[in-house]
Design brief:
The chain is an alpha+beta fold. Helices cover 21% and strands 43% of the residues. Helix 1 (2-14) runs antiparallel to helix 3 (164-178).
């Protein structure tokens, strides 16, 4: 039993890296009236991404929301994803997209298309309202659904990477169980 638990804790330690989501800007400095493009990327995921949704927080004294362009990351031939982005409040917009397929063959095709590579989810277009260096754009209330064929969906919110020291701490229970009594 000890060895089983030790293997379980070791497995948890080595598979603890979570999905990461970040915003990439097209430039670092903007002039008044320029267009600002902010792309949202997802990396370090497993399974097929079938849903994502999040809020984007921005400084409305620096930026004015214009449009959102979703990539075809959740589209398959003949099956378009359902996408929407809208202003929720001053300085806050909501974006979501979900895969419209329901069959395992479609999930398999989506998995092959995504192939574990970093995914560009959406690009937001803003107008710069003043001269400034890098604008403040943050993501909040992140939700994702990952599916694999013949498996129930794995739903995760607010993914964060697990730092290396925390991963090493997950190994301590395994080492404790494997110690020999003198």
């Amino acid at each position: 039993m000890k060895k089983f638990l030790a293997v379980f804790f070791a497995l948890c330690a080595f598979t603890s890296q979570a999905s990461q989501m970040n915003v990439v800007l097209d430039k670092t400095q903007y002039e008044d009236g320029e267009q600002v493009f902010a792309s949202v990327w997802l990396s370090n995921y497993s399974g097929a991404l079938t849903y994502f949704g999040f809020d984007t927080l921005f400084d409305d004294s620096q930026l004015e929301f214009v449009d959102a362009k979703f990539t075809a990351v959740l589209d398959l031939d003949g099956l378009a994803a359902m996408n929407d982005a809208y202003l929720l409040d001053v300085g806050q917009l909501t974006a979501y997209s979900f895969f419209s397929g329901i069959f395992d063959e479609q999930i398999k095709a989506l998995l092959v298309k995504q192939a574990g590579q970093p995914l560009q989810l959406v690009t937001f277009k803003f107008n710069a309202l003043a001269n400034f260096a890098k604008p403040s754009i943050e993501l909040a209330n992140k939700e994702f659904t990952f599916e694999a064929p013949d498996m129930p969906p794995v739903i995760g919110g607010d993914p964060r990477p697990v730092p290396a020291p925390a991963t090493a701490l997950l190994l301590l229970p395994a080492l404790f169980l494997l110690r020999r009594r003198a």
